Amino acid sequence: MNQTTENKEFAIGIVSAGLSYILWGILPLFWKLVDDVPAGEILAHRIVWSLVFMLIILAVLRKIPSFKLELKSLITNRKRLIGISLASIFISINWGLYIWAVNADRIIEASLGYYINPLVSILLAVIVLKEKLSGLQTVSIILAGAGVLVLTFSFGTFPWVAIMLALSFAFYGLIKKMVQVGALIGLAIETLLITPFALLFLTYVHAKTGSGAFGGNLSVTLLLLLAGVVTAVPLLLFASGAKKIPLSMVGLLQYFAPTIKLIMGVYLFHEPFTGAHLVAFICIWAALGIYTFTLMRGWQLRQAVVRTKSL
Fold this sequence. Notes:
Blueprint: H1 3-33, H2 39-60, H3 64-76, H4 78-103, H5 107-128, H6 135-155, H7 160-179, H8 183-209, H9 218-225, H10 227-242, H11 247-253, H12 256-268, H13 275-310
Helix pairs in contact: 1-10, 1-12, 2-4, 2-8, 2-10, 3-4, 4-7, 4-8, 5-6, 5-7, 5-12, 5-13, 6-13, 11-13
């Protein structure tokens, strides 16, 4: 691959990955459009229609055979099946809590959760995978903890929404790393496993109240049908972009989403942002700055080793 082609691939990767995080950042706008529907129903629709849309995408990309092979492999491997089942549970918890947080006017706290998610992932890697923390990474974890404590003592309430969002997504990422299923096929399998429960729930809700996509407001029904599209499109962009750019660049771009959420929470939806919030976020931002520095330095060292070996 010549230099011009490499530069083009890098540019496409930056645009694709960056756009995926921007779309994830503005996702609260979509959930606000259906905030008259209970969060549990929205989650159930998101799961069902994500599966439908993912199967369409896999068919278009001619990956249905790969999907079937992966599914067969999981069924015959009990540990991997348990792992992907747990992943589907954690991502469902994350999706449901996030939808609830947006529609309960807690977007700022949700953004905090996604800011601290990378640091929680580091902590899980140390605890579960026995990885070692560098001195700077230890400092970043301490700073993040300090930010959470500031909010807890200032308001007398533990920021459980932020912590649960960070934990659920960190556990999801950890399990996906251990199971090693591709992003697109993985999401299709995860939604496939949880869809029967989502359909049972929707059937129960419809029988009891007549609400949801099977009756009521047509515009809301159509928006709920689009839940699968708004879930899958950013993932497709991310899967395409992440393959073309370094991990350190992905690490930088991931802060687009919570930053957009924070700005929308403060300026668009006018959620309270106090001095305690500012101090807490400064702690988190400093921790993320340190984390990003260690990520980029590690990538640069690996690149230097590769160049040395190629000489």
